[in-house]
Amino acid sequence: MKNIEVTGAILRAMARIGLLILWFLLSLVQQTVGFLLRTGDGRHLRLRFYRGALRILGIRIRLFHDFSPRRPLFVVANHVSYLDVFVLGSLIPAVFVSKQEVRDWPVIGWIAWLQRTIFIQRKRSRADDELTPLVNALNQGFNVIMFPEGTSTDGVSILPFKSALFEAPKRGNAYIQPVSLVYRERHGGQLSPRDRQFYTWGTDAPFFKHFLKLILRPGVLVEVWIRKPLNPQLDRKTLAKTAEVRVHGPLKRRVERQLS
User: What is the CA radius of gyration of the chain?
Assistant: First the structure.
């Protein structure tokens, strides 16, 4: 029985790799043609790419509440895995903010660049310079998605939100939309510590090794809790702390239910 399960997992992984390559190439052609014909900026093609990739990987989404109708939005979320990008990217047309070193990562860096990600160095001495592309994107009508923890976590708790880049929605007059990402077993149950390691990813782990383990798994459910938006007129430190508290809410309730 165990041999049958292992064989099934390997066949599933092989099929997913093939489908992902084909889907990526098809999406690349579509975006290239759209760029050459000047039919748009590609934001809806990117939306379609993320949705297709999630289906191939067996990632399901359960959405709680809707995004604010105000546009553009400055979306901030807790960071658990590279899958967060696919989840959020499938729900709202947007550009992502990422640290500069991601640009040099194999595969992920290329995909991020192709999806018009804004790369920053997160240095205090360059804070003003790094705000400029974010403000420009908001002024051009793009929604911007940022992970203000600055790194990924285990998905159980969150790190304090860094406040410097919350100046961008103030200058771009964009409402801040906090979002909580809660990873669950594919049928909605709690992820065991062992299963959680297949989906959460620390940046110190080799990407390909982690990804190969992930595609062997049957799939996962991601709860997306869209929290009440924040007015950009508040000061940036208040924005960061309030957003952190709102994002932490669903994660805190999940832990409390697990312990009860």
Answer: 18
Record the pTM.
0.87
Q: What's the pLDDT tens digit per position in 70-119?
A: 999 999 999 998 899 999 999 999 999 988 877 777 677 777 777 788 88
Report the distance separating Cα 74 and Cα 239, nearest Å.
11
SS3 content of the chain, % helix, strand, coil (to 5): 50, 15, 30
| Interval 108-153: pLDDT, tens | 777 777 778 888 876 665 667 789 999 999 999 999 999 999 888 8
* CA distances from residue 4 to 7, 9, 192 in whole angstroms, order as listed: 5, 9, 23
Farthest CA pair distance, the chain: 60
Q: Which strand (E) or helix (H) includes residue 175? A: strand 175-185
Whole-angstrom distance, CA of residue 11 vs CA of residue 216 = 9
Report the number of distinct structural domains present in the chain: 1
* Calpha distance 71→222 (Å, rounded): 25
Range of the domain at 130: 58-259
